[in-house]
Amino acid sequence: MSTHDELTAFGWGPHFESQLATMDIATARPARIISVHRSVVDLAGPDLETSLPVPVNLESGPLTVGDWVLLDEQAERILQRLGRTSLFRRRAPGTDRREQLIAANVDNLFVVSSCNQDFNEARLERYLAIGRDAGVMSIIVLTKSDLCDDPGEYVRRASTLAPGLVVEAVNALDRECLQGVEAWLAKGQTVALLGSSGVGKSTLTNTLMGESAITTQAIRQDDDKGRHTTTARHMHRLHSGAWLVDTPGMRELQLTDVRAGIDDVFAEITALAEDCRFADCSHVNEPGCAVLAAAQRGELDERRVASWRKLVREEVRNRQSLAERRASDKSLGRLYKNVIGEKQRRKRRG
Q1: Separation between Cα atoms, residue 106 and residue 86, nearest integer Å
Q2: What residues in the chain have per-residue pLDDT under 70?
Q3: Cβ neighbours of residue 144 under 8 Å, at least 6 residues apart?
Q4: At what angle are helices 151-159 and 121-134 packed, to 10 degrees?
Q5: Of 199, 257, 281, 338, whose Cβ has the fewest other Cβ atoms within 10 Å?
Q6: How far is the C-alpha of 7 from the C-alpha of 25, rounded, in Å?
Q7: C-alpha to C-alpha distance for 350 and 345, rounded to whole angstroms
Q8: Where are the domains of the chain?
Q9: Tens of pLDDT, residues 153-165
Q10: Residue 78 CB: number of other CB atoms within 10 A?
Q11: Predicted TM-score of the model (pTM)
């Protein structure tokens, strides 16, 4: 098995080490998933680069980029997934109510936007809610500062979106301009990039890697909207020894099970909501609503209040539908087991 120092370079730490104490690892070794395809995962570790089939019905649950797993080297298969330190997820787009995993075991999150028409406070608040709920440090990176007359205005607006928020305005093509960003990219650290298409995530990744590993595409000039360039999540190793998870641009980011993150991002509002007259206050038109009263006095930003209400309603709706989906999946699983069991009993009697 690899030494602790060798594994640390891949993001290994005490959280994962402690799990091995209760496991039989005589023929197993840890490895990290660096990309996930439809039926195959790519894995890496000390002196290891391989691809293996995605296990069917893995007891420890589905896999995503950044996961640590235990491999049976003799049988060349994945035995189980180790418990995570953090997880980014969303509700799958469209009518499917399934949960989609984005990345796991991330230390820091770069929420990427740009200093142009793509800048959108409400969208950034969604990304920040996911990061805060996962318990990781979130840094807003504003690209294309060189193409903007006043990038400081975008920095000011972004800085108001959550308490203690770090904001960096950069030219993603200029390595020297990325020193503030690189401070978060220490050896063994894992950083994920989240942002919509065309904001410069792939350009930022290429500059940090010192090569054109990812194809980039120009944005549409009429509305500053981007086209998808990254189509799959993949971990890239940087010269600093850090790991960067580039993700596809997300046109739709539905929140699920991130209420704690929402409360953290909108801390000034959620603190006031505790003083509302009614415990189930919707903060729309109820008497005795502390949130509405503060907004009317000009103590709260009405845009922030509207955004908070929308995200809370969406999160509750998606959490309920996901719980219904999980209950349905469990019932279907029990049905399958009962049918198989009955067939086996009939076969034995026959």
Answers
A1: 6
A2: 1-3, 24-26, 75, 92-97, 211-232, 248-254, 321-350
A3: 114, 115, 116, 171, 172, 200
A4: 50
A5: 338
A6: 15
A7: 9
A8: 4-81, 87-246, 259-329
A9: 999 999 999 888 9
A10: 23
A11: 0.78
